[in-house]
């Protein structure tokens, strides 16, 4: 089958071809709970660029070459002997992990922390291909109203935004404020999730006017240009004291320092984007009693919930489509800021 | 009345006399809800040294000279016209804030974040004196079994340890682990609080053998010497993955880096001690989904709960007594590591 | 001043005059924290009818005659010596309790359970009058956009609906369902609150087509006629298993049995209306692991949050106005089902 | 193999032989995730008597004859092809459900509510036998220190007590009170669990002096004889207002009315035992804002946590052993009050 394969890291992202389009053997059922999914769409994610850069090299155990692509949706092609719930042709979206359902963490609902899990597209072959092997435990059946290619980016981008949005919403009451830094692929979903799950006032922060306009459509109440006055602007909107929650989808450059400066006493700063460093004195953490919260993708049941929102039109995804054979174009477009929101590869 | 007054900062803590013993006017009732407390004991806290150093200068709005002392207990001396619940002679411990009970934060139970509050000993005159002015809303009546001088350090040190211990305990199940870094005045209370509020295994980390012995008495299951192998030692006790919670009562030197390295994925690092800096890359926060949690003293109702534990003998305080006139000796002893656990001044 | 006074109970609600319009002495400042509010509007509540019936006689300690009216908003007329936050003319809504702010329950944010509180209109003179005495701790300043007469019913009806809606929303995820039984004065607010605080599907259940039409406007997704097929209808909408949450604003007749029958395993039934009885076998509670949750008005901070929703147009109140001198007309209209949603008396 | 088989219901529990000891075919592996466990011990539970009585007939879908026994521990005998985590001879305790690990409820950690699960001993063949078929997802490996026959009753009785104890402990602060009604097989574990998970004062209520003495050993602070003065006695211990939590392990006779009368405003009544009926007026639920909470066994991860407590000696089980061939003796002893705490059958 056709697949986009990563053969070597490219720390500067300077080569014209990050991945190679080639024929690879089709994946096979290995365990009774395995399933093969025919890919309908595979999302292209900033994390894919970071993988190419080699940033993830030390974080996961993976050997090159392998097939990238961790945001996958499609139709059931084949199932293992232990699988009775799905049949060929069923449309599905795949939670990004092949979760080890027996791990204590997954028994507690913390799928992402289950030991012995695999992560297609990150630690094993992914969905920049015609077919993908995953586990029955990662599947969610799609309703008629949602086509695989249209929801694929929800498998990671959407799920990550939902996960952090749900965490933040739990602590936000009407009259409180949440600042969202970065209204791109994740941020524009995050704003819709917040608008669906709570009534806090959403303050969107971005450098681009177009992104801020999108934020408005998604449910933001206040728009702040991410220039040198952004912290003051947020403080002005929040009685000079900052927002009860700040979600940082950028996580590099000065967004971390700004994000922390926008966070009110007794509030929380959620870090989602990465590349930068958190630096803060202990006394500043203590006198303000703030929290800094890491966020890693989301759980299976959260993806179920996100699909319910999508199916009700509460969360919409802005997507750009590319052919699988144009994977490098998509990755370069993303790298050069030409993808407004979310790119999807179609085999 | 006699009082120990701070006249000037001493950034190096080099002078022989940090505070001056002198006669000052007695405090007066100013508002209908004010009370005057005759001090039975006033705890001496590392924060007092930090105040002398000037570390708090920019954090609070206070003008020198003023009377230090923020851990106070004693007996009611006088009450304002709006106070009907207390009468002269009642033994009380004082929550460290004169809380603005009308602030929205305090209506939600977050006393420490109530705007318009005063902090005797930090932002206004405190309890290194014969008499203290505070508000009726900070008082907790003591049972016969608890003498003011014996519980005074609970007003801040104990309360801080209880607050963070309760936060951590809420997320800890049997079989999980909590590492406590620093078994001094706060740490030895924190261990007792954790033992009272959950059944997680407590791992005490300290440089001193005596402190570790005390930790054992307080309820620690594992003792780790805080040397260059401390992180490995904690990892060995936790399947190589770290503790679900780490409470850092030191917060300076390498304790922060060590504490973060001891924190398991999906776990929380609680910062209580200060002086140092937190530095961690965004990607490390994200792939591990850890939380960094600031902690600031505690609420009124938490001090009520701590008194209940003290009254049942579940939390015991190791104290050393000094005369008020020996305030400088107490402060120097603390500075030079001669106070094993908690010093108390008695007028 | 003019006031509507209850002189005797009327268990059958058969007399033409439940209350007597008469001149009574103006309330006076008694404590430093007291305030006098000039009434702009006083909501008329089903609980007022229950008070007339004598249902509350044994529940609270009150002696007739007294002035009814527990949903009050207006303008500051006078303040006690300890009050610095408000001045004559400030528009305010009154949390229904004169909360004892020193009680441990209120320090924990559970105002309604604070011992030593008074309840104007229930346990002492209320707001069916020109002036009302309450405490500074019950006041919330209104923004320009909200007139006292327009928000008065929020003080109890709205607050109760918000309180239970917030409790329920906390446990509801997208794709889950909440059934709301009774779309009257409280129910139509409850639906708006649920729509603001979560994305669960709202199923409105009522006997009246007009009420169901209002429910739709308020944000209900499904409408169910409260006839003999109502339980089946809800089961059909919920995979045959019931709703994760059921909020019963009726609480009499067969609404309790129906409500419990509509509640899914591991779900919660919230009881708000009253008059009826809960009857269920222990084995049915256990095999289904359901919860039955009592609900009593709401907290001060919840009323603050509700005002934020009202100010943003997220919760709108349907009201009918009466002159204070027409109090009996209003009460009779309510008793005979002629008040569509919420009646308000204006002095 | 030998097994104790239920052939017919006996609504009065009047026959001498509730179950028949006979040879039945050995269970076989049916699915890749199945395991066969050689029984080391099978607990005998009051629910077994209720099954014989036919109380569960309408609650579950089961056809007679079948093998009873839902509290099982032993050693791995055989495993399906999809099982790699266990090998013959491994000592295990079995969570009582063969959980459908793909169900949304189990993905959220609510195993007991996962559709498509089986319940050996209740809805299919159980452990009153030499061998038991269950699923790999129900297994917990035992440490050397815990023998199967000694922990078997934890699989249901212990787990149920842990589940409700953990729920209650989450809301209990030091100084608050929890009343435990019934100190039998479940109650004596429940008290130990509460003592391990919180510092609330435990009030044990039982008719038997021996049971109260056991309660004392288990960690109860106050002992109350379950006579006609029990409610007053509990009120006296709780400022006349009742306990913040009441756990009713009896659930029949007057224990429910008493339990509700012992529950403080804003508190919770947990129902575990069954046989009786809950009856309370809506107005009483509302003015007191109490909660009535059903409880059904517990989750897989809770059984893991309970084993950790058992392994640390924090929860000890009082057991009486019988041969499998004496199953009827054990059941009759239980029925006639001759089992002090917990009976275990050994093949």
* Major sheet summary line of chain A: 7 strands, mixed
Q: Assign the CATH superfamily of the largest domain in chain A.
A: Medium-chain alcohol dehydrogenases, catalytic domain
From the N-terminal CA to the C-terminal CA of chain A, the straight-line distance is 10 Å
The total count of helices of chain A amounts to 11
Shape of chain A: globular
Description:
The structure is a homotetramer of 347-residue chains. With 347 residues, the first copy, chain A, is α/β, with parallel strands linked by helices. The first copy, chain A, folds into two domains: 2-156 and 297-346, Quinone Oxidoreductase, Chain A, domain 1; 161-294, Rossmann fold (3-Layer(aba) Sandwich). Chain A is 27% helix and 26% strand. In chain A, strands 3, 5, 6, 7, 8, 16 and 17 form a seven-stranded mixed sheet that branches. Chain A is globular. The model of chain A has no long low-confidence stretch (mean pLDDT 96). The interface between A and B is large, with 36 and 36 residues.
Topology:
Four copies of one chain form a homotetramer.
Chain A: E1 2-6, E2 20-23, E3 34-44, H1 46-53, E4 66-67, E5 72-79, E6 91-94, H2 104-107, E7 131-135, E8 139-141, H3 148-151, H4 157-170, E9 177-181, H5 187-197, E10 201-206, H6 209-218, E11 222-225, H7 230-236, E12 243-248, H8 255-261, E13 263-271, E14 277-281, H9 282-288, E15 291-294, H10 300-311, E16 319-323, H11 327-335, E17 342-346
Provide the descriptors you would attach to this structure in a database record.
homotetramer, 347 residues, alpha/beta, Quinone Oxidoreductase, Chain A, domain 1, Rossmann fold, 2 domains, seven-stranded mixed sheet, 11 helices, 17 strands, 27% helix, 26% strand, globular
